[in-house]
Amino acid sequence: MKRDETFREISDLLRSQTPDPQPSPGLESRILRALDQHQRPAPKRWWPWLLLPSALAATVIMMAIRPAPPRTAASIAEAPITEPPSDEPMLSQMIAGNPLNAETSTLSRDAERAGNFFINCLPSLDSDPE
Questions:
Q1: 60, part of any domain
Q2: Residues 94, 102: contact at Cβ < 8 Å?
Q3: pLDDT digit string (tens) for 46-69?
């Protein structure tokens, strides 16, 4: 048998047997029930009508209450001016040498503090369980 003939025979056999589909039992009742649920009107909500009067009253009160106009100052007193403490020794130290020395010492101190913090946070690594 040739290859084309085999396919023709198979297709003829498949076409000769028409399927007879049978719906599953209860399918019609499920469809009708689903249609009935979609056609029902939504239940009416009555609770928003209970909240409406209090919301309206709060809105009216908030609109009625107006803030008092700001008072104007009768006289303006000048605040005493104090001069900040002088940082000249530290400033002259920074300018005299390398300007990055102060930054370097600050960063190294911060790194040392962070390292000590992490070491203190770690659990003890003793080999003797207590």
A1: no
A2: yes
A3: 888 888 999 999 999 988 887 777
